[in-house]
Design a protein that fits this description.
The chain is built from 3 helices and 44 strands. The protein is mainly beta. The strands form 3 sheets. It has a 21-stranded mixed β-sheet that branches. It has a 12-stranded mixed β-sheet with strand order 23-25-27-29-31-33-35-37-43-39-42-41, with no helix packed on it. An 11-stranded parallel β-sheet has the order 22-24-26-28-30-32-34-36-38-44-40, with no helix packed on it.
Length: 519
């Protein structure tokens, strides 16, 4: 694929005028650190190249080359001092960042260019952010990969996991592994996109371009146009989904062993068909992703389609995506997240939390002030809550492992498990499942007014069991089913604890419970 360099050069010249540099100095450094195989690696490099290759093991090896050019020796010294490479984090999350001052602190007397060469655990989660580069290359990874850049070629080799690329002026080259284990989204405004796939690689292809063409050497099944958007199956697979979007250039898919000159235009061989309104067809399939290690202050972000990944928001966060995954490691203030289709992975939320997805799992590390967590269908898992927490799922398990306040949990189908912190003596609890089991773990001194009910067609199998004494159990027939209800005050009584399960068991435990990490 030809490298698209004209707009890149123009952009660089307009933003960072080139020097007639007479001097150049290269500083190199190498270091290693531990990273969990499923940990996250963030690289933020505004001016420079990045190469990340996946390897076996649980450590990261980093080689850094900082090239500083200047008009004289004093300019070189200034540039070397003001261009800083930093590293922070731990075994779970590690950030590498190049800090270069904004104008006017950065003068036109010097320029710096930092290149990272990294070997990381192949199953780690990789997130790269660049502004100007010659290239960003990620290879041999099985974890998810996210890249955002303004200018520079992006090369993806032998990737098996989910991929999200959002570029303005960069070409994108993608060579997946033989089996893709997640959706792929490749988007560029002024760049071209080329996919090179093996003969057995299977996925659904959705492609969009306004000024360019679609060309391929790969046999397609059920290929058709919906307005500007091409949809097709590769090796008859409907999942995973590979989405490619280029506004101005071609999107090309090649079978391994063929070349671009052999690729035929798909537009010329297919007639556009649609049952959708013309206005909808004229809307191009575009994505808008966002990723950053740190966002200062309060932050708002909205997109029709896009994934969001942020290490730390130093303020409140308000996010909405029409379809996409949201990952927030730390939010200092209030957190309000809505996805109309995608998983939510939320870490330490220090303010009130409101999280909703129309479809997908939700994981919360620590809801310090509690909040409202809902999904149209999927699991909800909360490690710790520090205030009133309400959870509701259209279908899926609900687990809260350490509740320090009132809890309301409801699912249409799935198990509900609530563990009350050992230091909590009273708390209002409501746990309801339309089909599944309810497990409540409480400390021995826990006081409550308990009302536990199961409705079952198999009363000999489904039961209410409690380690807390003082409950009275009654049975009654409801048509062909049986209602079993246990009520009473335990440990002197307290706030109401209401438990309800259909076609399942209710179990109240008082033994010590070990809090283990989420699976």
């Amino acid at each position: 694929m030809k490298r698209f360099s004209l707009l890149i050069v123009v952009a660089i010249v307009a933003t960072v005028p080139l020097l007639a540099a007479n001097f150049s100095v290269t500083d190199t450094t190498k270091f290693d650190y531990a990273l969990d195989p499923d940990g996250s690696l963030w690289v933020d490099d505004p001016f420079g190249n990045v190469e990340i290759v996946g390897v076996e093991g649980s450590s990261v090896s980093v080689s850094v080359a900082k090239v500083t050019r200047g008009v004289d020796q004093s300019a070189i010294a200034e540039g070397r001092a003001l261009t800083v490479v930093t590293s922070r984090g731990d075994e779970r999350v590690r950030e590498l960042r190049t800090i270069i001052p904004e104008a006017p602190a950065r003068t036109l007397r010097w320029q710096s260019f930092v290149t990272y060469t990294i070997r990381a655990p192949k199953s780690a989660h990789v997130k790269v952010s660049t502004t100007y580069s010659d290239r960003v290359r990620v290879a041999d990874m099985t974890g998810d990969v996210t890249i955002k850049n303004f200018a520079g070629e992006i090369i993806l080799d032998n990737l098996a996991g989910p991929v999200v690329v959002d570029s303005t002026n960069g070409n994108i080259s993608y060579k997946p592994a033989a089996r893709i284990n997640g959706n792929v989204q490749l988007a560029t405004v002024n760049g071209a996109i080329q996919l090179s796939v093996g003969p057995d690689t299977a996925f659904q292809w959705i492609a969009d371009t306004i000024q360019g063409d679609f060309r391929t050497t790969v046999p397609l099944q059920k290929a058709h146009f919906n307005g500007r958007t091409l949809r097709a199956l590769v090796n008859s697979a409907s999942t995973p989904v590979v989405t490619t979007s280029s506004l101005m250039r071609d999107v090309v898919m090649l079978r391994t062993g063929t070349n671009e000159k052999d690729a035929k235009s798909i537009r010329q061989s297919l007639t556009p068909v649609s049952d959708a309104p013309q206005q909808q067809l004229d809307t191009p399939l575009l994505t808008r992703h966002f990723q950053a290690p740190v966002v200062e202050g309060n932050w708002q972000f909205a997109t029709n389609i896009g994934n969001i990944a942020v290490g730390e928001v130093r303020g409140s966060a308000r996010i909405e995506t029409g379809a996409g995954q949201v990952q927030l490691s730390v939010v200092a203030g209030e957190c309000n997240v809505i996805s109309h289709g995608g998983e939510l992975d939320l870490g330490d939320i220090r303010g009130p939390l409101s999280a909703h997805t129309d479809a997908g799992n939700i994981t919360v590390g620590n809801a310090r002030l509690g909040g409202t967590i809902t999904t149209g269908g999927g699991m909800i898992r909360v490690v710790s809550s520090g205030g009133p927490t309400s959870m509701k799922s259209g279908g899926g398990d609900i687990v809260i492992r350490q509740a320090n306040g009132p809890v309301s949990a409801e699912t249409r189908s799935g198990d509900v498990s609530v563990t009350v912190d050992a230091g909590v003596k009273v708390a209002s609890i409501a746990a309801v499942t339309g089909r599944g089991n309810v497990v409540l773990n409480v400390p021995p001194q826990f006081g409550a007014d308990i009302d536990a009910t199961i409705v079952t067609s198999d009363p000999e199998t489904n039961k209410i069991e409690s380690d807390l004494r003082g409950l009275t159990t009654r049975r009654e027939s409801i048509g062909k089913r049986t209602r079993i209800r246990a009520t009473g005050k335990v440990n002197g009584g307290g706030p109401r604890v209401q438990l309800y399960a259909e076609e399942g068991d209710i179990r109240i435990n008082t033994q010590s419970v070990v809090i283990s990490p989420l699976p």
